[in-house]
């Protein structure tokens, strides 16, 4: 064969191969798009009471009741503080007694359920079902709110504890976090009781009183009490405050939290003999500490994308269902399922270098700092401490710290927390997630008069902070969700003010939360898969 004919033959073969490869890649990516993010069918309750209650929720007279219920709870300033002393000693706890009186009067039928007060202000209700063979379900919220800084009171559009309703929104501290969850759940049960609903499955309600201040007096004690009453892994699943839904990439995504990051406040203490400032030693405590903190900044934790992370599952849903997701991001997500190079490129697209947050305080002979860590679900407290030790060890030795004093690393507030177990979203243990997903879709459709699947796409998510569920891990076999169906896209340009000035919640969003709780309870009561 001539050189010319050989070259021509090679070009043809290469062209065919290239064409085949491109077509195969396109088909592969197209198939993967549909497989990336499993969507379960919507789950509409068969009980006709669900539809009847839905009609009640949509009526103006019920809207008025809902406004009054939420507004009344906001008017009771149940602020929780980091420095709260023991219950019975610190008078700031007494406001929770006022809230309990309000709840008793506002929800007379709920008040007929079995109630145990745990550590005085923790509330534990049991709505006892008729079939004890069915595993109970735990629904939770917290009664407390973030304190309002007195210096900001005049910055609020309406007084922070007024519960003002402007015809569209309810304003005040707790309207979003988390009295809407507390009152939304109680409102749902009250209206179900009014309409004669009697569950076959037992539902337990646990309401802590200091979630915003670590939960050591509320949820910690509630967790112990429930473990004693119901036993280990007694609950089919747990639902606490958490994610909602909003539009992203041209589609509505709901993101129930299926995991939580761990937490560690690492205290760095440097001690030395001190001395007079006129003849300072070559390495002072403040100088050494400053260099140690710079070492943290110079050696940030590597930011890596892992296919085992919850966030990666969220990205897969964006790629599989987002209509307007940037093409380079979609391509990187799709290709990352089978290419480490693409996985790295995905991380490069999404992440920027993080920096640890530090707060320092110096004394003449001692200096210390607290470095906050939020721990990946793929890591642990021990991993973080080991890495931090290795990061600082070399510098401490080079600075001859041992000659001048000592360096200690410790858990600053004895409050370290391992990452939460990740709730299954597929496979044989995913029945609770499937039920929740179907409930979210049914609620979303019903509130808008829609029909069919995929009007809202459900994607696994992870909250940025920690919830009271950290004290409930032993109560369920890894089946914990952080979700209360808040419409995060309903702000219409007005900030919701969570943990800051002008906290508010659109009343339509609150009504949909109530609808969600009624749908969840009825669906769970009818299910035999969980």
Automatic annotation (TrEMBL):
Q: Which InterPro entries match?
A: ArgE/DapE_CS, Pept_M20_carboxypep, Pept_M20A, Peptidase_M20
Which keywords appear in this protein's UniProt record, sorted alphabetically?
Carboxypeptidase, Hydrolase, Metal-binding, Protease, Zinc
Show the active-site residues: 144, 211 (proton acceptor)
Q: What is this protein called?
A: Carboxypeptidase S
Q: Which family does it belong to?
A: Belongs to the peptidase M20A family.
Binding-site list for Zn(2+) 2: 142, 177, 240
Example GO molecular function: metallocarboxypeptidase activity
Task: Tell me which PROSITE patterns the record gives.
Answer: ARGE_DAPE_CPG2_1
List, alphabetically, the Pfam families matched. Answer: Peptidase_M20
Membrane spanning stretches? none
Q: Name one GO biological process term.
A: proteolysis involved in protein catabolic process
Record GO cellular component, one term: fungal-type vacuole lumen
To which species is this protein native? Answer: Gymnopus androsaceus JB14
Binding-site list for Zn(2+) 1: 177, 212, 499
């Amino acid at each position: 064969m001539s050189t010319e004919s050989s070259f021509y033959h090679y070009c043809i073969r290469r062209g065919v191969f290239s064409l085949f490869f491109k077509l195969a890649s396109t088909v592969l990516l197209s198939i993967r798009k549909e497989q990336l993010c499993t969507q379960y069918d919507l789950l509409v309750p068969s009980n006709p009471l669900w539809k009847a209650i839905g009609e009640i929720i949509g009526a103006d007279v019920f809207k008025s009741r809902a406004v009054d219920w939420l507004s009344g709870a906001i008017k009771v300033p149940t602020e929780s503080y980091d420095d709260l002393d023991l219950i019975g000693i610190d008078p700031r706890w007494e406001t929770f007694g006022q809230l309990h009186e309000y709840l008793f009067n506002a929800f007379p039928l709920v008040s007929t359920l079995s109630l145990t007060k745990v550590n005085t202000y923790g509330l534990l209700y049991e709505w006892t079902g008729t079939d004890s063979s069915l595993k109970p379900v735990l629904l939770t919220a917290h009664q407390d709110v973030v304190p309002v800084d007195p210096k900001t009171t005049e910055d609020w559009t309406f007084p922070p504890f007024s519960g003002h309703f402007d015809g569209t929104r309810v304003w005040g501290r707790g309207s979003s976090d988390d009295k809407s969850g507390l009152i939304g759940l109680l409102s749902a049960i009250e209206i179900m009781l009014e309409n004669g609903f009697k569950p076959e499955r037992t539902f337990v309600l646990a309401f802590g009183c200091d979630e915003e201040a670590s939960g050591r007096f509320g949820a910690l004690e509630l967790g112990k009490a429930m473990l004693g009453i119901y036993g280990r892994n007694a609950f089919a699943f747990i639902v606490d405050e958490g994610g909602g839904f909003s539009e992203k990439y041209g589609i509505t995504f709901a993101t129930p939290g299926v995991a939580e990051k761990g937490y560690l406040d690492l205290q760095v203490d440097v001690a030395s003999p001190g001395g007079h400032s006129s003849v300072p030693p070559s390495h002072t405590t403040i100088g050494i500490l400053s260099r140690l903190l710079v070492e943290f900044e110079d050696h940030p934790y590597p930011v890596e994308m892992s296919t085992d992370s919850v966030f990666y599952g969220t990205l897969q849903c964006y790629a599989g269902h987002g209509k307007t997701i940037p093409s380079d991001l979609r391509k990187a997500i799709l290709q990352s399922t089978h290419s480490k190079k693409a996985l790295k490129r995905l991380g490069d697209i999404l992440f920027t270098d993080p920096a640890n947050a530090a707060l320092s305080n110096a004394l003449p002979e001692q200096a210390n700092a607290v470095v906050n860590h939020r721990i990946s679900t793929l890591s642990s407290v021990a991993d973080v401490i080991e890495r931090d030790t290795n990061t600082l060890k070399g510098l401490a030795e080079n600075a001859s710290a041992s000659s001048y004093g000592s360096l200690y690393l410790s858990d600053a507030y004895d409050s370290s927390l391992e990452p939460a177990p990740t709730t299954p979203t597929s496979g044989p243990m995913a029945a609770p997630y499937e039920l929740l997903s179907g409930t979210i879709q049914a609620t979303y459709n019903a509130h808008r008069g829609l029909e069919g699947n995929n009007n809202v796409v459900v994607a696994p998510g992870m909250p940025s902070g920690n919830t009271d569920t950290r004290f409930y891990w032993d109560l369920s076999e890894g089946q914990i969700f952080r979700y209360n169906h808040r419409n995060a896209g309903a702000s219409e340009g007005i900030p919701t003010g969570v943990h800051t000035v002008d906290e508010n919640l659109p009343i339509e969003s609150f009504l949909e939360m109530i609808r969600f709780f009624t749908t969840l309870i009825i669906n769970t009561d009818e299910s035999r898969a969980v």
